[in-house]
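Hello,

Our lab assistant flagged a job as stuck in the queue for most of the afternoon. It eventually completed. Since we weren't sure the result was trustworthy after the delay, we are filing this so someone can double-check. Below is the sequence as submitted and the structure that was eventually returned. Let us know if re-running is recommended.
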Amino acid sequence: LAGEASLAEARPGPSPAHVPPPPADAPDFADVKGQEAAKRALEIAAAGGHNILLAGPPGSGKTMLARRLPGILPPLSFEEALDVTRIRSVAGLLPPGAGLARERPFRAPHHTVSDVALVGGGRTPRPGEVSLAHRGVLFLDELPEFPRAALEALRQPLEDGMVTVSRAAGSVTYPAAFMLAAAMNPCPCGHHGDPGQPCTCRPDEVARYRRRLSGPLLDRIDLHVDAPRVSYAEFRPGGAAAPERWSTAAMRGRVLAAREMQDRRTLPPDAERPAAGTGRAVAPRTNAALSGRELERHCALDRAGHALMEAAMGRLGLSARACTRILRVARTIADLDESAAIGEAHLAEAIGLRLLDRGPGRRG
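-- returned structure --
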């Protein structure tokens, strides 16, 4: 205070060498029997910060899987913790005397939510669900049942990581950099493509149901994944436990290793400062947020990769935005493989994780 000495910068939180494990009572992926392909997709989504949509019949475990997603995400950096705490304070959701947020948000609004409640607004503008999920996960169950206006209002925050609410008295911009995790049935009855129960919907009903999700919205969801019916042999009581590879602890370890690769590529050297629980003070960049220039630098393809992408773009009718997102996902898959280059197998897996680009009514 007297100007005679300076204090070293101090930040709250545990030692940067200590990455806290998920809470002991957090739901574990090991509790979900079967669905290993969906677990793999969720691991990719968490590793790269990608949006994901799970499609499958009722009772296949889509909601159980999505609710376990926060457990494999990295802990909040100091900057992220400040962001989450500020938003909760503005929204009146911060308990008196509460300190910095320690866990990533998980918001799951009901499908009857209005567009104002989802993206923010009101006579006195307040943050909506997309901002309350900032730096965390926004889970939308029964995605096609949400009002069309609410779904289309998601397009700006999904693209820009922020949302602007304009009123006569002025406009307010709220942060909204969240991971979207959504779930849906494949058709109105829920059994289209289900070998265990026949679908009762007509083809036009299936196409109409899928068209509730517009092409521009689906383009902004990186992964469209099938979550099929689980057989009795997979989930029967007393049966074989899920492989240790698909426990929350194991998946989280792989996610953290992939995020570390992304940090080394995208964070400047002066960002290597201690932070609360992560060793960083600033919010890390993920593959989902790679800019066009960074895509050129970090997602270069060889001749076989270009040929595969060109074939997929022509056969599936992919937009340029969808192709960009496939490249970002392929970069994440390569990071999980600890590969510096994107191989043909990484790109093929990323293309295969866009289920609804192949389904009825996708571009009709």
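-- support follow-up --
The delay was a queue issue, not a problem with the job. The result is valid. Confidence is low (pLDDT under 50) at residues 13-19, 272-279, 360-364. The chain has two domains: 29-235, 290-357.
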